[in-house]
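Quick question, first post here. What does this chain look like in 3D?
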Amino acid sequence: MDDGVTAGEGDGAGAFAAECRVAVGAAEEAGALLRSRFPGAFRVDAKGADGDVVTELDLLAEELVTRRIAERFPADRIRAEEGGDRAGGAGARRTWLVDPLDGSNNVVIGLPAYVVGIALCVDDEPVLGVVHDPVVGRTWRAVRGAGAYGPAGRLRAPVRPPGSARPVLGWTQGHGVPAGDPVVRALKDALESGARRVLQLWAPLLTWSLLAGGLIDGFVGYRAEEIDLPAGCLLATEAGIEVRTPAGAPFSARIGRPDTARSYVAGRPEVLPYLLDLVARAVPG
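> Answer (accepted):
Ran it through. Tokens below.
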């Protein structure tokens, strides 16, 4: 098995061609399962004390994806959103992250905005990301250094013409952020005042995909969840999106860091200075 992290152009898979095929196949198979059951009857349970939920569909899709990965790469570690983890071999350098249903709250209320997300990290650094939208049948994928690809080919976020209307932005915050957090309120107020529209989709991977495809202009996350961050961030950066910390430093989607290190400002290069200024005025220092 190749543990290298280099990738060539080609079809966008490079040294991770086999991993990309497995991830895309598993994500699309899980998506077909989700689509066949939505919006029908399924069990819904509470998840934690913050009002989050887990559905029967989360568990079914997670079992499917983790099984497909483990069958092909039994030595790799797997971390899954709903606890379907697999330890892998001793000293495994490779970790798969599986978000089998990003947008569970949307599914519960019958809103067709949800995706399946898979990432592969080598030595904790993301090298492969796949996002599949079962609702419209679209799949996006990225390999570090080899670009990002969608249904129409390679993704390159278009440049906004000078004098364009205020940007359309996405927003997300981690489940662990307490209600009434003053930083959240300050940031959301600043973004609402400086944007044409702020989307809070309850499905961060869907938002990352819209950003990578050039359909929105920026995305701000505060103490974001780790399970979906590597795939989304890699997809965006390989499409030409810049991602920074709120202070403007380079951002890392490396796994294993606390949620306080998972706040980011992402946007097209020509929009990013404006977004960073909005954030800095909201939360000085």
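Residues 168-282 form a domain with the D-Maltodextrin-Binding Protein; domain 2 fold (CATH 3.40.190.80).
Confidence is low (pLDDT under 50) at residues 1-10.
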